[in-house]
Amino acid sequence: xxxxxxxxxxxxxxxxxxxxxxxxxxxxxxxxxxxxxxxxxxxxxxxxxxxxxxxxxxxxxxxxxxxxxxxxxxxxxxxxxxxxxxxxxxxxxxxxxxxxxxxxxxxxxxxxxxxxxxxxxx
Length: 122
What we know:
Elements: H1 3-20, H2 54-65, H3 70-80, H4 87-94, H5 101-104, H6 111-120
Helix pairs in contact: 4-6
């Protein structure tokens, strides 16, 4: 379809929508905002995450946040499914208590044991 034909089609479609009232539909309500819990990375999803004390989550992440780029390496590993975590980050991760893992990775329970086994080999 040529550019002129597309432009004419678009104008006819907009005029039809305006004439039938479709152009005046009420806007969709905004999506619910993320619940931000201090110290929790990433923000929580209401109803999806197990309840936890924000102070516990902060404590669990604290050793990793003290190492430059460690949290980024971990998140990149989760989202790319390639474990690319440096030695300093691995050392800090291995020192974290296993009871922290569900608080740190509530939506990816397989990740912490996988990262632990990878880091143990370094």
